[in-house]
Amino acid sequence: MTTFTLNNGLEMPVLGYGTFRSDQSDLLAENVKKAIQVGYRSIDTAFIYKNEESVGKGIQAAIDAGIVTREELFITTKVWNDGLDFEGTLKAYEDSLKRLSLDYVDLYLIHWPGLDESYVEVWKALEHLYNAKKVKAIGVCNFHVHHLDHLLKNSMITPAINQIELSPKLTQNEVREFCAKHDIYVEAWSPLMNGELLTNDTICTIAKKYNKTAAQIILRWDIQSNIVTIPKSMTPSRIEENFAIFDFELSQEDLETINQLNEDFHYGPNPENFDFGR
């Protein structure tokens, strides 16, 4: 498994198993274990997914089976920061640990910036957790340039990760350039646009050239673009397929062809108007 080195020296796998829109269930626990068996070492969840218990069961099953040790895994969860203050954020972290049945997570993220600047107070709580060595790295999700700029001016620690919606239809160039300048890695959620991109003519043509699937081409484009990526699947064969991207490399010409597919299209919510459902 290839890794990227975060700005605090922590190694993060470039490919992870995402669990967004995966309901709490024995099936999810089995698929988490399956992903670890296949070779994934990074597992991504969040409080708002309401599946941390199942993710934790899958992790423990893999550990009990001798597939991995806890130290070999990279576990991410996120705080749903709607109205949380400093103390509320600390409690939210401890509650996530209980649901996951873990002593720590490797990466803890603010899930959304929201429509005001209250994320600064939440970030201070994440800084406290990091300084107390209760989490190995901290970061944010869905932050645009103005969110990141304001956070950096009002914080002591630079986020290690900014997890954003990113796909060939939404390349997020402005955010990526800002993050690169400030040594923040970008992580892509919904990299396959919920499967909508798997029939794209351009991507399918490139896939035939490499004898790979459209999904594999997109995920390979991610990591060759220095983007961490976390595809989600509840189908065991596709969990395996999504992992099989380390035996080929896209040409620079094909990378650029995929870059040209950008339409600045948000398949999911836009952080500029996302208000936690209010």
From TrEMBL:
UniProt-listed SUPFAM superfamilies: NAD(P)-linked oxidoreductase
EC id: 1.1.1.-
InterPro entries per the UniProt record, alphabetical: AKR, Aldo/ket_reductase_CS, NAD(P)_OxRdtase_dom_sf, NADP_OxRdtase_dom
Positions contributing to substrate binding: 111
Keyword NADP: yes
PANTHER family membership: 2,5-DIKETO-D-GLUCONIC ACID REDUCTASE, NADP-DEPENDENT OXIDOREDUCTASE DOMAIN-CONTAINING PROTEIN
Enzyme class of the recorded protein, top EC level: oxidoreductase
Family designation: Belongs to the aldo/keto reductase family.
One of the record's GO molecular function terms: oxidoreductase activity, acting on the CH-OH group of donors, NAD or NADP as acceptor
Source superkingdom: Bacteria
Keywords: NADP, Oxidoreductase
Residues at the catalytic site: 49 (proton donor)
Record domain NADP-dependent oxidoreductase: where: 15-263
Official protein name in the record: Diketogulonate reductase-like aldo/keto reductase
Organism (species): Kurthia zopfii
Site (Lowers pKa of active site Tyr): 78
